[in-house]
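Box 3.1 A note on notation
Throughout this textbook, protein chains are presented in two layers. The first layer is the amino acid sequence; the second is a token string describing backbone geometry. Keep the layers aligned when reading.
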Amino acid sequence: MALRGRHFLAGWLIFLLAILAWVTARNTAAHVLARELAELREERSAREAERAELLRRIREGSSLGTLRPLAEELGLRLPADSQVIILQQPVREPR
């Protein structure tokens, strides 16, 4: 049975609508993913800024200028060079 003109046209219209619906769904999914990616990038930037701030605070807190006054309040002092003993871990012989 041969398709008549109306049936052929209706088939093509249904095919075209299906393709357009697929393209629309794909584009919508892409927009959702792009939005999620932008949010993740913003979160990553915030986390990197927080990490940089924490590293700055660690460097500042472990500096001699910060630790010396605290040590002096506790009655501690810096040792003289002759009082410093450097301990080395013994080297193991390979088996």
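The CA atoms of residues 67 and 73 lie 10 Å apart. Residues 5-76 form one domain.
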